[in-house]
Design brief:
0% helix, glycosyltransferase, 4-stranded antiparallel sheet, Ppnp, guanosine phosphorylase activity, Jelly Rolls
């Protein structure tokens, strides 16, 4: 899917790590939500209350998923899932464009 129709966009950005990670919330009529964002190169730790699917639209990163010692290489066109109430780590090596879908 390359575009979303009939959505509400929250204008105010979510800004993390001094502006190195930003996103905007997209709300759908059925109550579901996604975020669209950009991450600059760096290392980040995130926590999520809801399970999520992170689609990498462009760029490259490594992810360390909850309970794993391994770092997985992910590039544009690939995705990964994070369970609810979990934390995960990222090593972003190039500018990353992403879409995150939440499963409440």
């Amino acid at each position: 899917m390359t575009q979303f129709s009939n959505v509400t966009v929250i204008k105010q950005a979510n800004v993390y790590d001094g502006g190195k990670v930003t996103s905007r919330v997209i709300q759908f009529a059925d109550g579901s939500r996604k975020t669209l964002g950009i991450m600059l190169p760096g290392e980040y730790s995130f926590s999520t209350a809801a399970a999520e699917l992170m689609e990498i639209l462009a760029g490259e990163l490594e992810v360390q998923l909850p309970g794993s010692e391994l770092w997985l290489a992910i590039k544009g066109g690939e995705s990964f899932e994070v369970p609810a109430n979990a934390s995960f780590n990222l090593k972003v090596t190039t500018l990353v464009d992403y879409c995150c879908s939440y499963y409440d």
